[in-house]
Amino acid sequence: MKKLVTALMILLPLVFLVTLFTVTGITSITTQVAVTGIAITDKGDADGVFAFDIATYQPFNQSELGITVYPSEAKNKDYALTVTDVATGEASDVVALDEDGNFVLNDTGLVRLTYTTVDGGYTDSVLFAISSSGVLNFEPTMTDAYGEQIDLNRDGEVYTTANLSCGTYNLGTLLYPQATIAEKVTFACDEPGIKVNALTGEVTTYLGGSYTVDVTVKGIKGDITHQVVLNTRAQVADLAINGYANLSALSVAEGSTTTTIYLESLDALSPADIAAAGDYIQDFEVTALDDHRFAVTLTFADGHPANTSYTLTAGAATRNLSVQFVERTFYVYAQTNSQGLGEIVMLADSTMTLAADTDGQNWQYDWTLLSQQGEELSTGSGNVFDVSLAETGRYVLSINAYLPDEEDEDSILESHDLSRALIVTPRYTTLLFAESSQDTALSDVLAYPNKVFDESGNLVDQLFRPTLKDGTTVLDSWTDLVWSTSADSLATVRVGAQGAEVSIHATGKVTLTASWRYATVFGVDEEKARATYTFIAVDGVKVTNSTELQSAVDRNLAFVLAEDIHLGEDLFNHSTEVVSGIETTIRTPKYDKATMAAYLESWTHTIPTTWDWTYYKNNGYEHPDVRYILEFNANVYGNGHYISCEYITDMLDSTGNLYDFAVFRGPLNFVAANDPKNGISVAAVKGQDNICFLVRQDDITLENVVLKGCDDEALYIPDEQGNPQIDLTRLNYVGTTLEIMSNVDLHACRVQNGRTVVRAYGRDGINLSAGVVPLTERIRVSIDSCVLSNAREFILKLSTNRYLLGTKETPSPALTDASGKAYTQHNKSQCDALVNNEYFYSRYVLTDVTVRDSTLATSGLFTVGMESHFAGAMLTGNTTIGKSYMSGWYDLAATNYSAVLRLVGDVKLSDWKNIANVDSSTLIETAGNLADSMSFLNLDVGAMLTAVKENGGEAYRNVIKEVDGRVMAHGGIAMYGGGRNYHIVDTSEWAYAEYAATYNVNLNILANSSDPDLYAQGTLLPSAAGPYDFRFIMYDANSYEQTINQ
């Protein structure tokens, strides 16, 4: 029970309130050194690409990549591998790992191997471009005349169709690996009743039966042959002609003297049962193929008209058919030209067989290959012709087709001159953009601007010039490539002598594509034969240093980071000394105090605090200011680079004390207790802090940028062995890393290292004395795919600057519905349902924050704090206890308007704490001995633990988890203040909602103690904070195993 009580003291509201009263001397809050990066030291070529040929692949082991996790002192160096398709970003099985760590190549393609650290989600990646120099195997395919796929049943190397109607079909090949181009494919069948195009795979069956077609592919290790068995059936009632029962017309090429048709008859038993008659039928010849199946060759008489008819008799069946003589068509077939018409495409450095054909017999062909300029390159005779060409380009095939006179070999009955365009194209194996291999950090895309600063600081236009490669070879020729962008309004591409040039016109996501024009001609899937690169086109400027950054900000320009940037300059000299046997870096100021302060002031700006400053006004002070370092007033695209405020915020001396010249000196006070004798602050509830990065303009996007309140190294302190560990108390004076006062989208960003990491309390520039106009005052913030980490107090802190002022009678007034009735759901889980109450939302919600698929990790207190005003009687002036310390303690109690936090998807609250590492006795801090009237602030932690132990009850049984002797508890979401708290947490779309438990605790639990001091604390603390519960949403002990590794 003691450990349970300790957990309650540290993490529940009783002591949580006390943590807000701070002065000096906080003890260290340490945690393990976090991962800051991962690197693949061997990335193949200069662009991070490995090219593999499956046909010749030798095992390549993951260890050869040289994966290194930084820093070397990081506790958890584990990482995970994901393989994705470069074009689509979807998971891919093209590459896998075997049990020995060897990469297994399952197919061709372009994939990204991304290694992601378990701690911090840092990534590095490399590309595998996988091709094959030849075919290893294939499967036959078959489609009908309309392109519909026909299923083939496999038995070994034989593929069989179901019964098909006679007709025309197309055989093809599915090659393995995919995207491989077969040097030669042939189709053969010498059975009657079927016609097979040896080069294209077109087959036509005229008779029912079973036909075996040999499909042969030239593979890298020799010819590979599979057989396709076509089972066909004719439409036989009494007679089928060419497979059809009702065939009524035939087309025959002009000049033909004969044609052959195929019959299938139930009545005819022999050729004698077959007859053909007609005015222009000179003769017919019947050949029996087998029972009831015949081939009939008709010979036409001279002088026949263009259309004639004849009668065909088979047994008792008779058909009347017409014959139409049509213009003769000559076909030039190739593996890439299944129709035999139009242009022919072949690969450079290859040999292609061409075949000429036309209806009828005995036609002869003479071939001539010409250059585009008409130069004769090669000749040949016969119906086939082999072409070999090394150079890409356009060529001409000239073919003379002639029909010799069989009776006079020196005479030609008919002659035709044919011409075909021959296109020789490069063979592209794995097209890719070199930019695809660049690390994109938390995002999946990088940004490219259309402007840069010249040496004089003037803006000049810039083109984006991508590098196209085939595998690891950079292309210097772009023959037969088609370039395009997905949105011409955003960016357009042109190709010149220097390659592709992309002009950026506006901001938005664009996909650049370079496609091989002739991929499908060779049976290569279009997706396998194009390079795509998706990026963010930015109408903005490239930034490489702090000077350019400030210039971009001053001009309200969107900017793209090209380098990591430290704001300001390092004001310290650095040396190394051995202290207590440990090598330590010592910093000493470069200048005197006044100069140091002047530099720091020149790098910061001030704005009036937007939080409640009534305490200052009550004591006669002007509206106080907070400082900020950099304001973003246009979109920021970081490309994974960071901006750090290290040189301005890290102002601790070697003893951990703040230098006198520091300008970031901690938050303003919401209220403070001061010793009237010397004016020294005894304790204070803190208000708004100084700000590293500020956003006040609407519709700002922060994309893939790392924002650091200070460098990670500034947090390192040595343990007893001299090993570094992170000390979160070194963030006491760093301020808020990112303050949001407008509608803002954060995507794929890292924000880290602040007293608070991200704070959103409402809109800037609101007259707090005027009436609330929710529609114009409400801010909407989206935090998507981000990592927020390392906070002294809260990682994400939410509230609203607007409130209903309390009175002595009602310190925390209620929000009311349309009828004036009070909303009573405050400080309870039931309040979350108000997110769907239209009246409540439209009247009272002023801060609406959505966190989606993000990680919040490593806080000193809680990952999320949702603050509502303190609303005890002491803050209304309605008390005399300790009155001499409470100057200005009136008109401070209030009820805040509502803030909404929406957790959507994979939001990880990675903040389990070993509570033994936290010294709760220092969470309330005093300056010397307190007067008796203020002694309730000097807590006796041991006695307080006993009180909670006696009064906590079973409700908190699962708040902690004992693991290997350690007592662990989760720092989840804290909704605190003591007054009516109408803040809302919407977990309806949160992936981990089932693991979260809600705890409600009231400070008056101490009033049950018999100890006078604890009794005073149990009665007086609520008088300061208010009487209402604090609410907490935390992973409980039952969910430890499921959430500890988030």
Element layout with pairings:
Elements: H1 2-11, H2 13-19, E1 30-31, E2 37-40, E3 49-53, E4 67-70, E5 79-85, E6 95-97, E7 103-105, E8 109-117, E9 123-131, E10 137-144, E11 153-155, E12 158-160, E13 164-165, E14 168-176, E15 185-188, E16 194-196, E17 202-205, E18 209-219, E19 222-233, E20 239-241, E21 249-253, E22 258-265, E23 274-277, E24 281-290, E25 293-300, E26 307-314, E27 317-326, E28 331-333, E29 344-347, E30 350-357, E31 364-371, E32 376-381, E33 384-389, E34 393-404, E35 412-425, E36 431-433, E37 446-453, E38 459-461, E39 468-470, E40 473-474, E41 481-485, E42 491-496, E43 499-504, E44 508-516, E45 530-543, H3 546-554, E46 559-561, E47 565-566, E48 572-579, E49 582-589, H4 593-602, E50 605-608, H5 614-618, E51 625-632, E52 636-637, E53 642-644, H6 646-649, E54 669-674, E55 681-686, E56 691-695, E57 700-703, E58 706-708, E59 716-718, E60 724-727, E61 736-740, E62 744-747, E63 750-760, H7 774-777, E64 779-784, E65 787-798, E66 803-805, H8 838-844, E67 845-852, E68 855-859, E69 862-867, E70 894-896, E71 898-905, E72 908-910, ...
Parallel strand pairs: 3-9, 12-19, 13-19, 21-27, 29-35, 37-45, 45-46, 46-52, 47-53, 51-56, 52-57, 53-58, 56-61, 57-62, 58-63, 61-63, 62-64, 63-65, 64-67, 65-68, 65-69, 67-71, 68-72, 69-76, 71-77
Antiparallel strand pairs: 1-60, 2-4, 5-8, 6-7, 8-9, 10-14, 11-12, 14-17, 15-18, 16-17, 18-19, 20-22, 22-25, 23-26, 24-25, 26-27, 28-30, 30-33, 31-32, 31-34, 34-35, 36-39, 37-38, 39-40, 41-44, 42-43, 44-45, 48-49, 50-51, 54-55, 59-60, 66-70, 73-75, 74-75, 76-79, 78-79
Helix pairs in contact: 1-2, 1-9
